Amino acid sequence: MINPVQPKPCTILGVTRESEHEWTFRVQSDAKPSHGQFMQLSIPKIGEAPISVSAQGDDWLEFTIRSVGKVTDSIFHKTAGDTLFLRGPYGKGWPVEEFAGKHLVVITGGTGIAPVRSLLRMCAQTPGFVPDIHLISGFKDESGIVFHNDLEEWRKTFHTIYTLDTGEKEGWRTGLVTEFVKEIPFASFDGNYAVIVVGPPPMMKFTGLELLKNDVAPENIWMSFERKMSCAVGKCGHCRIDEVYVCLDGPVFPYTVARNLVD
């Protein structure tokens, strides 16, 4: 019988610096998470942290991590050949089958692009899965940009708007992502679309409101919550909001549910 909370030792295959504060770790693993699910990464005697899968292959997973605490600080000291402990995958990912054949709009803030990166890669590699993709991806400033190669590749196949909250960069716009929602041609989609929003809670809140202002149907919007999960199997209550357990019922939620999840 498989123990759902038993970590498994996995070898780090490579480490890539994405930005000033974010690094991507490629880890050998035979786990097969759905797009949008997360894993628990741990170091013995230090602790563990929930991290979304930002890319995946036949025998590896990638995790894009920001150093924000004891566990992630310790992970940042790891290099290729070292061991990380993984358990999972957990949670509900993006409803990929529901997206098939629909115009897909993706709006991300900062490292909020990580939980949707594997889905975007899949769409780019599967012509015809969706008619088109409109991607608005914003970062605080140039030093915070991640996935440089992916962003440039996606310019070739997606309708892209890349933004910086402050500062200027060639080929980029300046302003919050909410300012550019009105440029998405929702009226031309004839109701056949889905919207993904991922980022810090204030960004998701105001992006959701801006989408509603542009007559986007609430039932067509999906969001992913970044929240500290502990057991990841709905036993400890650490991630509970009202009657919802984010580790089980999320981290991906339809907006009709997400807009009511307030601590």
UniProtKB/TrEMBL annotation:
Which CDD domains does the UniProt record give?
A: sulfite_reductase_like (cd06221)
This protein's UniProt keywords: 2Fe-2S, Iron, Iron-sulfur, Metal-binding
Q: Which domain of life is it from?
A: Bacteria
Question: What cofactor is needed?
Answer: [2Fe-2S] cluster
Query: A single GO molecular function, which one?
Result: metal ion binding
* Example GO biological process: pyrimidine nucleotide biosynthetic process
The record lists [2Fe-2S] cluster as bound by C231, C236, C239, C247
Q: Which InterPro entries match?
A: Cyt_c3_hydrogenase_gsu, Dihydroorotate_DH_Fe-S-bd, FAD-bd_FR_type, FNR_nucleotide-bd, OxRdtase_FAD/NAD-bd, PyrK_electron_transfer, Riboflavin_synthase-like_b-brl, Sulphite_reductase_B
Which Pfam families has this protein been placed in?
DHODB_Fe-S_bind (PF10418), NAD_binding_1 (PF00175)
Q: How is the cofactor bound?
A: Binds 1 [2Fe-2S] cluster per subunit.
Question: What SUPFAM superfamilies does its record include?
Answer: Ferredoxin reductase-like, C-terminal NADP-linked domain, Riboflavin synthase domain-like
Q: Which PANTHER family match?
A: ANAEROBIC SULFITE REDUCTASE SUBUNIT B, DIHYDROOROTATE DEHYDROGENASE B (NAD(+)), ELECTRON TRANSFER SUBUNIT
- Its name, as the record gives it, is Anaerobic sulfite reductase subunit AsrB
